[in-house]
Amino acid sequence: MNVEISEVANLPTKFGNFKIQAFKEQLLDGCYKEHLTIFTDQMPEVPIVRVHSECLTGDALGSCKCDCGEQLEYALHMIQKHGGLVIYLRQEGRNIGLLNKVNAYSLQDKGLDTVAANHQLGFSADERTYEMVEKVLAHFKITKIRLLTNNPKKIESLKGVEIIERLPIIVEANPHNEAYLQTKKSKMGHLL
Ligand SMILES: Nc1nc2c(ncn2[C@@H]2O[C@H](COP(=O)(O)OP(=O)(O)OP(=O)(O)O)[C@@H](O)[C@H]2O)c(=O)[nH]1
Ligand SMILES: [Zn+2]
């Protein structure tokens, strides 16, 4: 995997002061994906790590259809308090991309759930991979983590690191994401 790594820069936020560093992943087809790490100056020996997948609608637009935006805020808050890092992976729509995610949302408007909509479009329920996480953690010389997730598949998929503890990342449901969260629990095995 060919990865270009940026310098470290300061990022003051409403959650406190962080550092950021970008990782540009060269893909086989000549395209690239730019990921971001957001981390604290002080890092405990076993830091809290959140592997967050891009959700433009949830992270930036305040969408109520999912729990992504609130999970990101929770993660930044936790990391600011206890030390650690967020690995923000550009795997929009569980890696089907923004255009396909909007098509999936359109199918959900017609009654399909989040998994069935992906299948209808010819994708699996979750198309993400996590090789980048191994690369990032090696860069930070992190070998043991406390992982913020409810997703058992994510825990299984992370290689090259010892997950000392899983920390739940549960945010309150709302009328728009109740069915989505239920599907994540029943069809994708999320620990909700
Ligand atoms: N294809 C698709 N992607 C979605 C949908 N809703 C959210 N996403 C994407 O799902 C990703 C987040 O995954 P989640 O399944 O919510 O959570 P997770 O990261 O697997 O698990 P946690 O670590 O517990 O949060 C982001 O990339 C979102 O863009 C949807 O209805 N369809
Ligand atoms: Zn989302």
Automatic annotation (TrEMBL):
Keyword tags: GTP-binding, Hydrolase, Metal-binding, Nucleotide-binding, Riboflavin biosynthesis, Zinc
Pfam family of this protein, just one? GTP_cyclohydro2
Q: Which residues take part in binding GTP?
A: R50, V51, H52, S53, E54, Q71, E92, G93, R94, T114, T149, K154
Give me the reactions it catalyses: GTP + 4 H2O = 2,5-diamino-6-hydroxy-4-(5-phosphoribosylamino)-pyrimidine + formate + 2 phosphate + 3 H(+)
- The residues covered by the GTP cyclohydrolase II domain are 8-167
InterPro entries cross-referenced by the UniProt entry: GTP_cyclohydro_II (IPR032677), RibA (IPR000926), RibA-like_sf (IPR036144)
Q: Which cofactor does it need?
A: Zn(2+)
Q: What is the active site of this protein? A: D126 (proton acceptor), R128 (nucleophile)
Which pathway does the protein contribute to?
Cofactor biosynthesis; riboflavin biosynthesis; 5-amino-6-(D-ribitylamino)uracil from GTP: step 1/4
Entry keyword Metal-binding: yes
- GO molecular function per UniProt: GTP binding; GTP cyclohydrolase II activity; zinc ion binding
Domain of life of the organism encoding this protein: Bacteria
Q: Which GO terms describe its biological process?
A: riboflavin biosynthetic process
According to its UniProt record, the EC number is 3.5.4.25
Fetch the SUPFAM superfamilies from UniProt.
Answer: RibA-like (SSF142695)
Please tell me where Zn(2+) binds in this chain: C55, C66, C68
Q: What does this protein do?
A: Catalyzes the conversion of GTP to 2,5-diamino-6-ribosylamino-4(3H)-pyrimidinone 5'-phosphate (DARP), formate and pyrophosphate.
| Alphabetical list of NCBIfam families matching this protein | PRK00393.1, ribA
What this protein is called in its record is GTP cyclohydrolase-2
